[in-house]
Automatic annotation (TrEMBL):
Coiled coil: none annotated. Pfam families: PASTA (PF03793), PBP_dimer (PF03717), Transpeptidase (PF00905). This is PASTA domain-containing protein. The chain crosses the membrane at residues 21-41. One of its GO terms (molecular function) is carboxypeptidase activity. Keywords: Carboxypeptidase, Hydrolase, Membrane, Protease, Transmembrane, Transmembrane helix. GO terms for biological process: cell wall organization. It comes from Desulfolutivibrio sulfodismutans. Its main location: membrane. It comes from the Bacteria.
Length: 688
């Protein structure tokens, strides 16, 4: 009985155990069912509801949109010579958060880059994730940094601008910034044309961020390079212009200068020089004044170079003829309360001689004959008061006051270049009209891409015969006796030109004691092919265009003609270029050794008095009969030589220049006798 009871109880316990196991199974099944249901719901939610957003996030993680910019186009001269190009540089950058030792990194970079470590450390302490330490690093420095293997320091390749000819046409070319953006000159004016194009492309990356490939729209399929620019400049002629301009400015202790060479039939500018020079490669370390394109920006009074234009206007209006005579008031002419002066006491002068001898009074009377309205109209026709339209940013427009603001004296003074201001390039454009037989054609600086302004229709300003008449008058300036530009003579070539000596306005009002010496010339004198202009600002001690600027024009013309295969026949002299007897005597005496010289000395060409040179330069009355040696300081070499040769003295010449600065024997000493074989030495203005 008792055994039976125990058996029943045991069966009940087993049943209870089996029932609990089933419950567990049921519970586990329910849990799994819920989990699976939750996962299914979550998966459905992620795929259906959040699917598009998550897909975009994944795409951003594995696909990136990057941008790139192509190389900047190159700049060439008319013959295909390279003037500006893009080269690859190295930039040094740092991710400060990756640095382990700021001091060590700053010291290492400072030693390699030659930068103060304290400045570098300050950059490294930046909270920015990325900073540049130096850009455009040379190959040697980049190799040292790469070898140092400093954690957090990176080298990146980038493109920058290089100018292989250094300062050649530097102000015209301009320069670019660190981000390859044009900032000045043609680099700025043609920035859109030269700049490489930007493009965006898709890049696929792996989990580590490494680039895998470009998509079908990638960079390999695009040409991002900028367009090239071709100029009218000729690098060789540009070199000639800069070389001679530098000599003219330094030899005459000038402040600055400009030189332009233009091909007359086409209006193409072959050379555009400014001094002091500007090297765009070092644009960050140069005085901004040196980068100033003076020919396009500086506004100056043209002085006597205005006279051929005024006379052309009077001839065009039928008011005068070349032989028409004007009384030049013996050097002083009163207009209202003002007095106009000539540096010589001229009486009656023909129109031709007014240009040849550069009479202010004669030009003023011709201008007054024209009248203010016609004068102002011809200024506009010649392009004064408005930019030339050349593709240069910030070009000056000059200063021509409104006709209603003119006073009676203004009509007289503007006729010899006072009271009106122009840029050098405007003056060259005006003379191009005379050289082109009276037709105004636009100046050209760029050949490719073609410029719409350069293709503007020509406009006739003067009749052809009027322009040719003025050309012949300008030839007399160079080739006739007492012409103010005789030093510009070239053997075998007839040259036409005009001198200018403009007194500069004083900052305190009126005119000061500083001058602008200029000379504009055509070659050949009639039917010109080339126009050359040189201006020297504030030359000393001589400030006359025929003394300061004409020699530079002559040298530029000679070298240009030779380079272009038009060298003159030097076996003969150009008409009117014969030596004066005094200069010939000196040359002969020194070729033979000269009395007392002991050696052969080269003699400079006979200097020329420009713009009716000041009275101090003329030979004072009674000088030849003086019992003692006079003071020759400040006098032109030619005048002094004539005096000495008349006394039977062949001087020894020391230095270079056209004006005597010192002499031996000293002033006041007795004239040396020829039989005593005493040496007479003249020192000329030397280059600085």
């Amino acid at each position: 009985m008792r055994n039976g009871t125990k058996k029943v109880a045991s069966e009940r316990d087993q049943k209870r155990v089996r029932d609990w196991s089933r419950a567990k199974l049921t519970f586990v099944g329910v849990v799994f069912a819920l989990v699976l249901t939750g996962l299914w719901v979550r998966a459905g939610y992620l795929q259906i509801v959040q699917g598009p957003d998550l897909a975009r996030l994944a795409l951003r993680q594995h696909m990136a949109s990057e941008s790139d910019r192509g190389e900047r186009g190159q700049i060439f001269d008319r013959s295909g010579r390279l003037m500006a190009k893009t080269v690859e540089f190295t930039a040094v950058s740092v991710r400060p958060k990756e640095l382990t030792d700021l001091d060590a990194a700053a010291n290492q970079l400072g030693g390699i880059l030659r930068i103060k470590p304290a400045w570098i450390k300050k950059k490294l302490e930046s909270t920015k994730p990325f900073v540049y330490i130096s850009r455009r690093v040379d190959d040697k420095a980049s190799a040292e940094i790469r070898q140092a293997n400093i954690p957090g320091v990176y080298l990146e390749a980038e493109h920058g601008r290089s100018y292989p000819n250094r300062h050649l046409a530097g102000q015209v070319l301009g320069f670019v910034g660190m981000d390859d953006q044009g900032l000045e000159g043609l680099e700025l004016s043609f920035d859109d044309w030269l700049a490489g194009r930007r493009a965006k492309y898709a890049v696929q990356r792996d989990a580590s961020g490494r680039k895998l490939y470009f998509d079908a729209q990638g960079r390999e399929l695009q040409n991002l390079r900028g367009h090239d620019l071709t100029l009218t400049l000729d690098s060789q002629i540009q070199y000639f212009a800069e070389e001679e301009l530098a000599k003219a400015v330094t030899a005459n202790h000038g402040k600055a200068g400009t030189c332009l060479v233009v091909h007359v039939p086409t209006g193409e500018i072959l050379a555009w020089a400014n001094y002091p020079f500007f090297n765009p490669n070092a644009s960050r370390n140069i005085n901004p004044k040196e980068g100033r394109n003076r020919s396009a920006l500086d506004v100056v009074e043209p002085g006597s170079t205005m006279k051929p234009l005024i006379i052309a206007a009077a001839l065009q209006e039928g008011l005068v003829k070349p032989e028409t005579s004007f009384f030049c008031e013996n050097g002083k002419f009163k207009v209202g309360v003002s007095t106009i002066k000539d540096t010589h006491s001229y009486g009656d002068l023909t129109v031709s001689k007014i240009i040849r001898w550069s009479s202010n009074i004669g030009a003023a009377k011709i201008g007054m004959l024209l009248g203010p309205k016609r004068l102002h109209a011809y200024f506009e026709k010649c392009g004064f008061g408005v930019p030339t339209g050349l593709p240069l940013s910030g070009e000056g427009k000059g200063l021509v006051r409104s006709l209603k603001d003119w006073q009676p004296i203004d009509t007289a003074t503007v006729s010899f270049g006072q009271g009106v201001a122009v840029t050098p390039i405007q003056l060259a454009q005006a003379f191009l009209i005379l050289a082109n037989d009276g037709v105004k054609k636009p100046l050209k600086l760029v050949l490719d891409p073609p410029q719409a302004a350069a293709d503007a229709a020509p406009v006739r300003v003067f009749d052809a015969e009027v322009a040719r008449t003025v050309q012949r008058m300008m030839r007399e300036v160079v080739h006739e006796e007492k012409g103010t530009g005789r030093i510009a003579q070239i053997e075998g070539v007839e040259v036409g030109g005009k001198t200018g000596t403009a007194q500069k306005a004083s900052p305190t009002g009126g005119y000061g004691d500083k001058y602008l010496a200029s000379f504009v010339a055509f070659v050949p004198a009639e039917t010109p092919q080339y126009l050359v202009m040189v201006m020297v600002d504030e030359p000393e001690p001589s400030h006359y265009g025929g003394v300061v600027s004409a020699p530079a024009v002559r040298e530029v013309m000679q070298k240009t003609l030779s380079y272009l295969g038009h060298a003159p026949d030097t076996g003969r002299l150009a008409k009117g270029a014969e030596q004066t007897p005094a200069a010939a005597a000196v040359a002969d005496g020194q070729a033979a050794g000269g009395k007392g010289s002991g050696q052969k000395t080269d003699i400079l060409p006979p200097p020329v008095i420009d713009d009716a040179l000041a009275e101090v330069v003329a030979v004072p009355p009674g000088l030849l009969d003086s019992p003692a040696i006079p003071n020759f300081s400040g006098m032109p070499l030619r005048r002094v030589v004539e005096i000495l040769v008349s006394k039977g003295i062949v001087p020894k010449i020391e230095g270079q220049g056209l004006v005597v600065t010192k002499q031996s024997p000293a002033p006041g000493a007795p004239w040396p006798g020829v039989e005593k074989n005493q040496e007479f030495v003249l020192w000329l203005t030397r280059p600085s």
